[in-house]
């Protein structure tokens, strides 16, 4: 990694999506390590063309990541995991809240989704880059008024008062830099172990809503590429993509 993530930050009032803006800028030659933030996103993106609600008060940011020796495509699944661990750790450090990670791309506080992560790959001048999009409900309450309200939360609703977005952003970037170094040095085991320690999914009964099937069983572990290993009556099924529903 040539530059530290966050060595430069471009701040916008309002954009469609920080991931989209960062992708455009990256295609025009923006230096890896740059971060894009926006106060509001009008077309925030979730996975699989879903919408991500992004009103003022949340932390909406995207980070352009490059690895010196090229990014190993197989390890793409580690990006949301390392971003999730970074966010959960930052929330614990700053606010002492009960934060943890849910496979594959969520951060929970007190069991509810506070943050979603969207990792994307792109190639610029034959170089593989990755965009890590991080969306956190911070000073924007979400426990009323949305169709996802019953399963989501925000920092302000859990912590009881408004917090400074820059403080959270800086701590997340420090945490993300630490894990990006591990990615660079191919210290994948440490990335996995760190995620396991913060995991709220492992050991639970889950239903995975995969693109073509539904799988129910006990979430046993993650493999070396971040796929979830689910024990369905003694048979281990590997899940690469899907939504995970905690049943307990
Ligand atoms: C995610 O997708 O959780 C990835 C979200 C990534 C958002 C960041 S913000 C910065 C960057 N720029 C972008 O455009 N995106 C990234 P997924 O797991 O598919 O979850 C999407 C689902 O979460 C939606 O279908 C809703 O049900 C729910 N949802 C939408 N907005 C939410 C919010 N603000 N808080 C909690 N849940 C939300």
Q: What are the salient characteristics of this protein?
A:
248 residues; alpha+beta; BirA Bifunctional Protein, domain 2; SH3 type barrels; 7-stranded mixed β-sheet; 5-stranded antiparallel β-sheet; 26% helix; binds biotinyl-5-AMP
Helix content: 25-40%
| Strand ordering within the main sheet | 1-2-3-7-6-5-4
Order of helices and strands: EHEEHEEEEHHHEEEEE
CATH superfamily of the largest domain: Bira Bifunctional Protein, Domain 2
Q: What is the CATH topology assignment of the largest domain?
A: BirA Bifunctional Protein, domain 2
Bound molecules: biotinyl-5-AMP
Q: Number of helical runs?
A: 5
Query: Per CATH, which architecture of the largest domain?
Result: 2-Layer Sandwich
Low-confidence stretches: none
Give Rg in angstroms. 17 Å
Taken together, the total number of domains comes to 2
Roughly how many Å apart are the termini? 40 Å
Question: Which structural class do the helices and strands define?
Answer: alpha+beta
Mean pLDDT: 95
Could you give the count of β-strands? 12
Our estimate of the beta-strand percent is: 25-35%
Tell me the name of the CATH class of the largest domain.
Alpha Beta
State the major sheet: 7 strands, mixed
Question: Can you tell me the overall shape?
Answer: globular
Task: Tell me what you see in this structure.
This protein has 248 residues and is an alpha+beta fold. It has two domains: 9-198, Bira Bifunctional Protein, Domain 2 (BirA Bifunctional Protein, domain 2), CATH 3.30.930; 205-246, SH3 type barrels, CATH 2.30.30.100. Helix content is 26%, strand content 33%. It contains five helices and twelve strands. The protein has helices spanning 18-27, 78-95, 155-159, 165-184, 188-198, and strands at 8-15, 34-41, 59-66, 99-102, 106-109, 112-124, 127-136, 205-209, 214-222, 228-232, 235-239, 243-246. The strands form two sheets. The protein has a seven-stranded mixed β-sheet, sandwiched between helices. A hairpin with a 2-residue loop joins strand 6 (112-124) and strand 7 (127-136). Helix 2 (78-95) crosses helix 4 and helix 2 packs across helix 5 (188-198). The radius of gyration is 17 Å and the shape is globular. The mean pLDDT is 95. The structure holds biotinyl-5-AMP (BT5). The site of biotinyl-5-AMP has 28 residues, from helix 1, strand 3, strand 6 and strand 7.
